[in-house]
Amino acid sequence: MTKQEFLDGLRRSLVNGLETTVINEHIRYYSDYIDSQIRMGVAEEEVMASLGEPRLIAKTLLGMEGVETVAEEYVEEDGTKEGEYRYLNFNGKTLRIPAWLFTILICVVSFCVLTFVFALMTRLLPYFFLIMFGIMLYRFVRNIFR
Q1: Which of 17, 84, 108, 110 lies at a 20 to 30 A Cα distance from 27?
Q2: What is the overall mean pLDDT for the chain?
Q3: Among 80, 59, 76, 78, which residue's Cα sits nearest to residue 68?
Q4: Do 83 and 70 reside in the same domain of the chain?
Q5: What is the pLDDT of residues 83-110, one digit of tens each?
Q6: Residue 83 has what pLDDT?
Q7: Which of 22, 53, 74 marks a domain boundary?
């Protein structure tokens, strides 16, 4: 997320609960904070990661201003609620996937693995029976000649 995306998201989240002057003060504060961190040598990505989601900051700011917010009903632009995501970590990178897509991926992977296992079993099953028949025949002959 870039500085501008963060500030736009914060403004969108504050627009229905506060006056324009108060919103501008908050935007100016966060803009100045981000700029000061960048001047001190912190990468923009790190600053944005440390700040977190702008709508969660907006929820806090609205609560401090006495504006009632709807709990747990923060909806992303794609219509997915925040709790409807699964997070996967790959080599230190976090991948956020909608829960419905995660479920489909798990089903597809499971189907592929099971198909592979059953295909392998059908290929190896005749050899398994042949080996088992040989072992049983060996034991039978060994028991007879004891």
Answers
A1: 84
A2: 82
A3: 59
A4: no
A5: 577 777 777 677 778 888 888 999 999 9
A6: 56
A7: 74
* 62 and 83 within one domain: no
Report the 10 Å Cβ neighbour count for 60. Answer: 11
DSSP single-letter state for residue 83: G
Q: Are both 15 and 68 inside the same structural domain?
A: yes
| Cα–Cα distances in angstroms (integers) from residue 120 to residues 111, 117, 123, in the given order | 14, 5, 5
- Model's pTM, two decimal places? 0.47
Whole-angstrom Cα distance, residue 103 to residue 95?
A: 15
Domain count within the chain = 2
Rounded CA Rg of the chain: 30
Amino acid making up residue 44: E
DSSP 8-state secondary structure symbol assigned to residue 2: -
Domain edge (last residue) among 55, 74, 93: 74
Give CA 127 to chain center in angstroms: 44
Q: Are 59 and 74 in contact (CB under 8 A)?
A: yes
